[in-house]
Write a structure and sequence with these properties.
The complex is a heterotetramer, with 2 copies of chain A (335 residues), 1 copy of chain B (294 residues) and 1 copy of chain C (509 residues). Chain A has 335 residues and is mainly α. Chain A has 15 helices and 4 strands. Chain A has a two-stranded antiparallel sheet with strand order 1-4. Chain A has a two-stranded antiparallel sheet with strand order 2-3. Chain A is globular. Chain B has a 6-stranded parallel sheet, sandwiched between helices. A 4-stranded parallel sheet of chain B has the order 7-6-8-9, sandwiched between helices. A two-stranded antiparallel ribbon of chain B has the order 10-12. In chain B, helix 1 runs parallel beside helix 9, helix 2 packs parallel to helix 3 and helix 6 crosses helix 7. Chain B starts with a strand and ends in a 15-residue tail after the last strand. Chain C is an alpha/beta fold and 509 residues long. In chain C, the strands form 5 sheets. Chain C has a 6-stranded mixed sheet, with helices on both faces. The chains are: A mainly alpha (335), B alpha/beta (294), C alpha/beta (509). At the A-D interface, helix 6, helix 13 and helix 15 of A face helix 6, helix 13 and helix 15 of D. The structure holds adenosine-5'-triphosphate (2 copies) and magnesium ion (MG) (2 copies). The site of one adenosine-5'-triphosphate (ATP) has 22 residues of chain C, from helix 5 and helix 9.
Chain lengths: 335, 294, 509, 335
């Protein structure tokens, strides 16, 4: 056979077979929504608005990157929103405490960031441990911890709001509102987390084991994969993603309360699934998840940019667009 | 224990700032009353929804055998029947904030006036803007209370040249307040004022306005009396010139008068209407409680 | 004295309270091919799973190179040079072929996966096995036989000292088997010890050095293969004499009424323009190499796969293209080759598996499911096919591979079919039962019913079919009758040396 | 063999093998919680309290019976809470309308009940249709319809509350507060639905097919099961269960608003899973679900038994008890 000419053809073909509609679909949906947004209100395309939209997607987006791994193994984590609230609360308390002795300095912020990472990792570890050692459905365990984390933050805030010390707030603010090379920092963080997630998922053993477990638990077990360890690690990873999201979130409003992060879990899971990851596990698409998070953010924005329909129906429009976005991907794939 | 009087207190769970305040004041008052009147027992329960609150009423009666109930209803209508059930069992009823939809159930009614809150906000808005300008409104969650406030507000500004550019629900939530305001700012090049109705939402709005660098263009009217906001008013913040009081401490009023009914001969039956006071830099110090979480 | 690679001493094994192995002594020499045979449920798979560290024995001892060992965790035996090909596929369906081959043993470059190296090595091993499987295909898109090749590739990709193969050839055609044998012999010559389980006794005769027979969990005999005949082996397994494997055919074909007419059926990528006619009371064999498209053609015929062209007419009545349920109502039933993936509910009990096609016949007067009747049907199936199950309430996954296949056959027979389409019906079942299945098929056609038989075992096709159709790359190449039904003729058509012209298909695009 | 003696032994053994801990576990958890409740406050065991607790479990319980089928096929339905709110709203509007012409009569109530059933079935049909025909993850579709139904009720109520006509309320009241042979009517309805569910699941072809699909989708397809039809039917069934729950709910509070039924979906799913049904499908336990719903109701009641711990921590206690209840089942099964 003619090796040389076929190699190039094969490569092209391989590329095409790798890039299926399922991969492109979510991005097509993003573009379709952007066109819709522009049609409804040309302001949509303004730099300021687009920056807002993308920046907002960072929280759920970063959390959803972690959720991609969890769902890749065929599990679920409902506790992320509450965990974010709890982490925020702890960071604020910690900073307010440190600032008294250390003064308002970056050291305080760095220490709080460290705390957040530790808390996230430990929270994830607890979830993972109870799920794997107790052999309980992840749905139940994380429903439980969801309640626990939310209660704890309510308790810490005495039912009210935990507010960051004003002097700290000024110092910390740029982490959300600042830019680097003209790009908002949350967006950079989102991108970095996504790249790290993609490397982890597609380029490391860990990622491969995640998908193997999601595809077939027994096969993974028989392939000498330490299933419990990998599953626990996905929860720790999820916890760390929550911690990163929290670190960016706190400087935004400088406060935490019992409503912080409410509903983020559903948004994150929806972003993952809109992105093309299957709920039953075995496949996972990091960039799809990124698109999914952006889709969510755009939908919210579009609803605020138009007053054509009754605000009472916002939820309905949102629901329809979500279903439509997914439907769009599915049918175009078939053709 | 025969002569011990049991008072049940049923309030919404601390799911946002204002209800957090309610919880705080209820707990503080519970402590105080218990310590002051040893023959009073006070059971405090919270609920996350109207249906759950109906459950807590059943439990207060079946388990704790209460003599009196102090309730801040989640919503007026769904709780009217369950409260009436207790009334028929001979329980003394105190209703706080949201009135029941049937006459004659409440022995004591401590009314927070949601209509007034909207009206006072609207009146200030008209005055401050000189009856002319473009504003945006951020509402709470779709409930009757929210409707009262909004409708009264709209009634006041009707006929003036104040134009509501758009309104959206911000769910009494800071993050939603922030996002909705971001989008309003992107959409409308000129906004003269914001009615945020709630101090939690107002805090989100402030950050969005700051981010857009449009602090000098507009002012914000919140509501409820959160300590941070009262502080800002006190300090003469240009962005937050006033706040409209809707004090969560009203639950304390309800509990105190109910307790009085059992520990003294004072006549307490009837209605107590709490004003929706306009907090201005002049009177702000009267409403500033730095120890409250709210 | 030759060196022993592995040895068991008085090994016993119980699943829960059910004992399945009793004091089994087995030894594997360095550089030998040691066949393990026995009836379905005799305990072969159980024994080798103990050897490979997937199960722990209940009592007895396992010795590796003369030293007692216990493999505490899965993977420990593999680290000790013991690799096993599972009878039931041990592949993750959502992963690609390449990812499966290296699962748990990924090649790293630094901390990252060395994909290039793994791709190269898997392509290499697949090529050595003579298959054209693309390493980037997802396993779920492979046919059963291709999955088997991947299983084999997975085991061969790593150098091992002991290679255990649990029925590697059950779904392979002679071509693949030949390649495999060449490789196995090569490994043996390099000192690798091989345990080889199969129900194809001719294969054992051809490849193995020694053979051990298990019956009902007991060790029966270990012999040099050169000392025993196929009949001897069969007798040792079953414990009695076996009569002729195939029942006599019906004599020369008579003029029979057509029952199923398939015209120009096409299915993109798999089948193009296939036409054939099935007559009343005949066994119509379908021969072909792996990937000939026989499975897909039959799936198109019964309505399990979308056909893009063509018609299927059953006794003068056209069949809808999309509904297998309708096909079954017409008493046409199809036995899938993919037992685990498409045939049976492994996590359910036996009775619901057997009755799922015929729940209509298991209702009380009130129209509710009659569990007594279901149990009766199960008992009947167990008796008819001599199913060996730990209990009648066992989960399907607790049955041995061959016994699962018997359940699959039993399930299919519940619809009282007029036409049965059997895709690899004797996959993994022992000679005794095979014989039963053959007589059973014969009996069926004698009652005026008809049968389509797809099999990778040419012997089966030749021994049972009244007529044979040969396919290649999705096209029907020719039809054979009478004395033309022999190995040489079939291979001529199957390899394209005779019959219609077919473009070499682009594989797995 | 000695047929006669072995038969009895075999029967006993079979019974024992059929009754696994997994079946008994949830009931053990119910009893454990009842003991806990009694320890905290002996009044727990009073007839009045127990009646309250059990009666309350009827709403989520009835919905959870439907969810058992959905989860049995390996799917999910997040829209049930909103659907209940929407149904309640429609019933109230309908009754308020009819009462004007027909007067306050049972005919009005019956008509509204009929409407509820129809709406439930149609709502379920829509869910099922979009999921099966659009081949979209049930999570996404029902997340969408969850938003849609909730928006619709908000719209109908104009952001406020829909209230049942007072004269109708008196007439309808006994459906929640009344008793039959001394047993509260909601409890009877719960029991009837559970029995019907058990018959449907264990004694009909439909039920068998549900489990078959959950067990292995492909095998079900190859067993000539019309997978799409059965899945759609499970959603219709779920809709009807929601309708029944609604019929009992409306007389309780006589109103519907945008917050009605909030969170019922999570509660229903949790009840199903606590009851021993696996999230991935293939097994389903109706009586386990009943126990699960009761467990939920008892937990809520226990939180009201004493106010020893801060109200803020209610969620944490609830979370801990849920995890504990499931953990209890799992470990006892192992022994
Ligand atoms: N997980 C299990 N639980 C209970 N019994 C089991 C289990 N696995 C196998 N068995 C039983 O052990 C016995 C031996 O099974 P095994 O799979 O070893 O047979 P086999 O010789 O490999 O048969 P086949 O030729 O059909 O593959 C069978 O009776 C089977 O039912
Ligand atoms: N024309 C073709 N083009 C590309 N791939 C093909 C073609 N025909 C078959 N294949 C591939 O070969 C695989 C096997 O096909 P099929 O199952 O129909 O073979 P078969 O004749 O039934 O043989 P066996 O069942 O023994 O493998 C299919 O999964 C398919 O991917
Ligand atoms: Mg076997
Ligand atoms: Mg085939």
């Amino acid at each position: 056979m003619n090796q040389l000419t076929t190699t190039r053809q094969a490569k092209l073909k391989e590329l095409r077979s790798r890039m299926s509609w399922q991969d492109v679909g979510p991005f097509a949906a993003v573009i379709a929504l952007m066109i819709l947004g522009t049609t409804i209100n040309p302001t949509f395309l303004s730099a300021a608005n687009l920056t807002n939209v993308f920046t907002r997607s960072a929280f759920t987006g970063i959390i959803a990157i972690g959720a991609t791994f969890i769902i890749g193994t065929g599990s679920i984590d409902l506790s992320v929103g509450s965990m974010a609230a709890f982490n925020s609360g702890m960071m604020i308390i910690f900073m307010n405490y440190l600032v008294k002795t250390w003064g308002a300095s970056w050291a305080v912020i760095l220490a709080a960031m460290g705390l957040s990472m530790v808390l996230g990792a430990v929270g994830g570890l607890i979830n993972g441990f109870v799920i794997t050692k107790g052999r309980i459905e992840s749905f139940i365990v994380t429903l439980g911890t969801m309640g626990i984390f939310r209660s704890l933050v309510t308790y810490l805030a005495d039912g009210g709001t935990l507010s960051l010390n004003l002097s700290m707030r000024g110092l910390y603010r740029p982490v959300y509102y600042g830019t680097l090379w003209g790009i908002p920092i949350p967006l950079i963080a989102f991108f970095v987390v996504a790249v790290a997630g993609a490397v982890l998922l597609y380029k490391t053993r860990f990622g491969r084991y995640v998908l193997a477990i999601g595809s077939n638990y027994d096969v993974a077990h028989y392939s000498a994969i330490n299933v419990n360890r990998i599953r626990t690690l996905t929860y720790i990873l999820q916890g760390i993603c929550v911690a990163i999201a929290t670190i960016i979130y706190v400087p935004r409003l400088g406060s935490a309360s019992s409503t912080t992060g409410l509903g983020w879990e559903l948004e994150a899971i929806a972003a993952v699934i809109i992105g093309g990851t299957a709920m039953k596990g075995g496949s996972a698409k990091i960039w799809g998840t990124v698109a999914g998070a952006v889709i969510f953010s755009i939908i919210g924005n579009i609803l605020n940019l138009s007053d054509a329909i009754s605000q009472y129906l916002n939820g309905a429009v949102q629901g329809l667009i979500i279903i439509g976005a997914v439907l769009l991907q599915r049918t175009s794939k078939d053709q | 224990a025969q002569d011990k009087v049991v008072i049940g207190v049923s309030i919404p769970a601390a799911t946002h700032g204002w209800t957090g305040g309610i919880n705080y004041w209820a707990r503080v008052t519970q402590e105080r009353l218990k310590n002051t009147y040893p023959n009073l027992e006070i059971i405090l329960v919270t609920a996350g929804s109207a249906a759950e609150q109906a459950n807590t009423l059943e439990d207060l009666y079946a388990i704790h055998n209460i003599d009196a109930l102090v309730i801040l209803p989640f919503e007026s209508d769904p709780l009217t029947d369950p409260v009436e059930m207790l009334k028929m069992q001979g329980v003394f009823i105190t209703v706080v904030d949201r009135g029941l939809t049937k006459e004659g159930i409440a022995d004591i009614y401590v009314a927070g006036d949601n209509h007034a809150m909207g009206r006072v906000s609207g009146e200030y808005m008209v005055e401050a803007l000189g009856g002319k300008g473009d504003i945006v409104v951020l509402r709470g969650i779709p409930t009757v209370i929210d409707n009262y406030r909004f409708d009264s507000f709209m009634e006041v500004i009707e006929g003036t040249e104040i134009n509501v550019l758009d309104w959206q629900y911000a769910n009494w939530n800071r993050d939603d307040g922030f996002q909705v305001m971001q989008d309003f700012l992107a959409r409308f090049p000129k906004i003269d004022a914001v009615w945020a109705q709630d101090d939690d939402v107002a805090l989100g709005v402030i950050e969005a306005v700051k981010q857009a660098g449009r602090e000098d263009e507009l002012f914000i009217v919140g509501g409820a009396g959160m300590k941070e906001m009262i502080k800002r008013v006190m300090d003469g913040d240009r962005l937050i010139p006033v706040d409209v009081l809707y004090p969560p401490a009203m639950i304390a009023t309800g509990m105190e008068v109910t307790a009085l009914r059992f520990v003294s001969n004072a006549s307490v039956l009837g209605e107590y209407i709490l004003d929706a006071t306009l907090v201005t830099p002049e009177n702000a110090h009267l409403y500033y409680f730095p120890d409250s979480p709210f | 004295m030759t060196e022993l690679a592995l040895q068991t001493k008085k090994i016993c094994k119980s699943y829960g309270t059910v004992p399945v192995l009793f004091d089994v002594d087995f030894d594997l020499r360095k550089g030998e091919i040691h066949a393990l045979i026995g009836e379905n449920g005799a305990g072969k798979s159980t024994l080798v799973k103990i050897l490979a560290g997937y199960h722990q024995q209940t009592s007895g001892q396992l010795l590796r190179k003369g030293q007692p060992v216990t493999y505490q965790s899965i993977g420990a035996a593999e680290a000790d040079g013991i690799v096993m090909i599972h009878q039931e596929f041990n592949l993750a369906n959502d992963l690609t072929v390449e990812e499966n081959i290296f699962l748990g043993k990924e090649v790293l470059k630094g901390r990252l996966l060395d994909k290039a190296a793994m791709r190269e090595r898997s392509a290499d091993i697949l090529q050595k096995l003579g298959t054209k499987i693309n390493p980037r295909t997802r396993v779920k898109d492979l046919s059963v036989s291709d999955k088997q090749m991947v299983e084999i590739a997975k085991a061969l990709a790593f150098n091992s000292e002991v290679l255990i193969m649990d029925e590697p050839t059950a779904v392979l055609t002679s071509g693949e088997v030949e390649v495999l044998f060449r490789i196995i012999r090569g490994l043996r010559d390099h000192g690798v010890s091989i345990v080889y389980i199969s129900h194809k006794l001719d294969e054992i005769k051809e490849i193995a050095d020694r053979v051990t027979v298990l019956r009902d969990g007991y060790w029966i005999a270990t012999e040099n293969v050169s000392d025993v005949s196929e009949d001897d082996m069969a007798r040792l397994m079953v414990g009695r004499e076996l009569s002729a494997l195939f029942p006599p055919k019906d004599g020369p074909p008579k003029a029979r009424a057509p029952v199923l007419e398939v015209r120009n059926v096409s299915c993109p990528k798999y089948v193009s323009g296939a036409s054939f006619t099935l007559h009343e009371g005949e066994v119509l064999g379908f021969a072909g190499l792996i990937g000939a498209g026989r499975t897909e053609l039959m799936e198109c015929v019964v309505g399990l796969r979308r056909r893009t062209a063509g018609s299927v007419v059953y006794r003068g009545k056209p069949l809808s293209a999309r509904s297998y349920a309708e096909t079954i109502q017409n008493n046409i039933v199809y036995l899938s080759e993919d037992r685990k993936g498409k045939g049976l509910f492994t996590s359910m009990r036996l009775a619901p598996n057997v009755t799922i096609l015929s729940l209509k016949d298991h209702l009380t007067k009130l129209g509710l499911l009659d569990s007594k009747r279901e149990d009766a049907t199960l008992d009947q199936t167990i008796e008819e096919f001599e199913v060996r199950a730990p209990s009648s309430r066992a989960l399907l996954s607790q049955l041995s591979g061959g016994n699962q296949q018997k359940i699959a056959l039993g399930k299919m027979m519940q619809v009282e079919p007029d036409i049965v389409i059997l895709d690899e019906p004797t996959r993994g079942i022992d000679v005794g039962t095979k014989q039963q299945v053959y007589y059973f098929v014969r009996q069926l056609v004698e009652q005026g019913k008809s049968c389509i038989l797809i099999s990778s075992e040419l012997g089966e096709i030749i021994g049972l079919s009244d007529r044979v159709i040969v396919m290649r790359s999705g096209v029907i190449m020719g039809e054979l009758t009478g004395d033309d039904i022999n190995e040489e003729e079939i291979m001529l058509y199957a390899t394209g040396l005779k019959g219609g012209v077919v473009d070499e298909p682009a594989y797995h695009n």
